[in-house]
Design brief:
single chain; 108 residues; mainly alpha; two-stranded antiparallel sheet; globular; BFD-like_2Fe2S-bd_dom_sf; (2Fe-2S)-binding protein
Amino acid sequence: MIVCSCTRISDHDIELALLDILNQPEAPIPTPGVVYRHMQKRMQCCGCAPLAVDVIYARLEVLEKKGLICPYRSFSTRERLMRMQQQRRNQKANVPFTAEEEDYVLAE
């Protein structure tokens, strides 16, 4: 499936990038930006970002089930991604951060 037609990125490309990224000793959160940079690509219109996030979530689960990434790393990554998504939703809705979310944002 094509995820980004501007840069010709497929779900398989994202899966391969996730394998490389998540098997690094200090793996970053695999956001679309991290994944695209890993593939040496750039988002152009950014219309693919929501689909890229969905594909990242789905591929994390697939890779975990196949035993290709550590389930603890996958869980930790999903938790961090969900926190980031919630922060974005709160910012769009102008909802103030909870104390825990604010600490997380300041720690980054």
